[in-house]
Design a protein that fits this description.
- By secondary structure, the protein is mostly helical.
- The protein has one domain.
- 48% of the residues lie in helices and 1% in strands.
- It is built from 13 helices and two strands.
- It starts with a helix and ends in a 6-residue tail after the last helix.
- The relative contact order is 0.16.
Length: 271
């Protein structure tokens, strides 16, 4: 993806605002900007057989939160709150993709690449889910995402999601991951992650599942193609085999993270 540096800086309040951010926040802001650009291009993308088209919500709608569901989307001169379809009484993961995550272009691209390059189904699932928590919260999204998904996915899947956030700052050419040139171009050569990111990397680098998280970063970095055509369809069977869909529906099942799903179900609730 080609990034207009001036447009990116303007989107986060200008150069002075970016320079005031710590390195982790800078990288998060850049990745979120790229994902928003992808989703703008993918407006009207068909997921699960239904076209998802953003529309303006009533002016009275004021959502309180930090994730994508709580902030305006679209070009800076026409920022809109997306109108959200009501969820069913027993929502599934696929329903969340249709009604809360759509168009989800980046994660669908990531999972598609993982599938085509022969990754295990657990890692394909990790690629499909690694950034969906950004609809709820943005800071430390690797940890939040892993926590939200742990009750429902294989342990290796949630582990890979947790540590992909830290590993993206550290090159591993032997396994196909170079330090993103875009990071250097946008933020300079002296870019240093926060201490907790370095500690997480050191831990993950010596873990038996290191390559699982590393493959998420590989398929994450190369999943920003504005011309890619993607769909949830190739992943329905993988979800069926590896995602523990509760019969009560996500958010209604009493798991330790059911409240996270409910927050995305009802982001307009005032309290």
């Amino acid at each position: 993806m080609d990034i207009d540096r001036r447009a990116f800086l303007a989107s986060v309040g200008g150069l002075a605002m970016v320079e005031a951010l710590d390195p982790e926040a800078k990288a998060e802001a850049l990745e979120h900007y790229m994902m928003e650009k992808l989703d703008e291009d993918a407006a009207g993308l068909v997921i699960g057989g239904e076209a998802q088209v953003a529309a303006a919500a009533p002016d009275a709608t004021i959502r309180r939160g930090a994730g994508n569901l709580f902030g305006p989307r679209g070009p800076a001169d026409n920022r809109q709150m997306p109108a959200l379809a009501p969820m069913s009484n027993t929502p599934t993961l696929l329903e969340f993709f249709e009604k809360r995550f759509a168009p989800a272009n980046h994660v669908l691209q990531s999972a598609t690449r993982a599938l085509k390059t022969g990754m295990s189904e657990e890692i394909v699932l990790a690629c499909l889910l690694h950034d969906v928590v950004l609809n709820l919260v943005k800071v430390d999204h690797g940890w939040w995402g892993a926590q939200m998904l742990e009750p429902y996915v294989p342990e290796r899947t949630s582990w890979a999601i947790r540590y992909h956030q830290a590993l993206r700052f550290y090159p591993d050419p032997a396994n196909g991951y170079e330090y993103p040139e875009l990071y250097t171009r946008i933020f300079g050569k002296d870019y240093e992650p926060q201490p907790h990111i370095k500690a997480a990397y050191d831990y993950a680098r010596n873990h038996k599942w290191y390559l699982d998280a590393r493959m998420v970063t590989v398929n994450d970095l190369y999943a920003f193609d504005p011309n890619a055509k993607v769909s949830i369809e190739p992943f329905i069977d993988i979800i069926g085999r590896h995602f523990k869909q509760p019969k009560e529906g996500l958010g209604n099942d009493g798991s330790p993270t059911a409240h996270m799903w409910r927050t995305m179900m009802f982001p307009d609730n005032p309290l």
